[in-house]
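User: Can you help me understand a structure? I only have the sequence.
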Amino acid sequence: MPFLLEEMCRAKLSELFQAVLEAEVDAALERLRYERQSSDTKPGYRDGHDRPRSIASNRGPITIRRPRVRDARFGSEALPRHRRRLRSVDRSITELWLDGLATRDFEGTLRAFLGADAPLSAATISRTNKQLLVDFTAWNERRLDDLDLVFTWADGVYLGAGPDDERRVFLVVLGGDRLGHKHLVALRESISESEAGWSELFGDLAARGLRAPHLLVADGAAGLWAAAEKAWPRVAQQRCWLHKMRNVEEKLPENQRSSAHAAMSEIMHADLEPQARRKLEALAKSYERKYPKAAACLRDDRDRLFAYYRFPHETWIHLRTTNAIESIFAPIRTRTDAMKRLRTAEFATAVTHALITKLTPSWRRLRGYRELLDLRKEPLALKNAA
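Assistant: Let's start by predicting it. Here is the structure, written out as tokens:
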């Protein structure tokens, strides 16, 4: 009985897909089957069907007969000529590859679902993955006029992907809008986190209509801040506390790092900005005599450490660090490490974009987003100290 039910489902799917092909012919000729041609309809006539052929679908092989048309050009969108798999099958193949199915296991795994005669070969995954480049190019050229971002996070992320001869970085910009939804705004591969690279990225975002946010959260990369100062001069700047803590701890002996981490964490979670500033200065003074480099590092760029106090309290948890980006790339690294080396930087970027896109449905809304609706549209007039 289960086998009979599967056969009935495939037969019904064949009927539905055949109806789609017939409807495409009706639309191309601008008249229904057996309807006479009038003076204001397009030329062309139905000319029967090709021989029955088997097409691979996600539910197994289905049988269709491609309609023929004479005296007019006709091409099916649902099933372009010479295709032997539905597009949904190609999407499933790509999804399985992104999820970690090894290329050598594809044929054996998929034939169990698509049928023994399904058109599969060693090159199938390479051909289907070309769509990743098409999707990424379209995403990378999209307009951004409708994005009303309040917060942005920017960081340079290194992955185990790309050409063997270069260690490249992905420049990433993530945004949070007034409704608390997070958006991947930009993803671009670069040789380094230079000012020129970030300036080019910010310039491209502006050209595609992105308006300046209220706050930019980033690490201590000088090139990024220099580019941001020029692109978004009125935007508040918040330096990532976790990066700052690592920088300070590297300048302390091992036996001092645990207590330093706890002290800086207490500063970061202070309820009021003046209180936080006093605690930071007190900690810096305690390091001056024995660990002057740690004291100088702690005081360096201190004004960028407290910009989050200008925003609703519930949002602070998102604004003190660049964890919004780091948390996304933790599972991405697991997959790209398993891929070893991707052949081109362009394809590595497209794969990274596809992996992030798969994660977006699980992203949680920002805390305190209801209070963001009260912020005025233009960025806060906050001057950041260098």
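Now, to help you interpret it: The mean pLDDT is 84. Residues 1-84 form one domain. Let me know which part you'd like to focus on.
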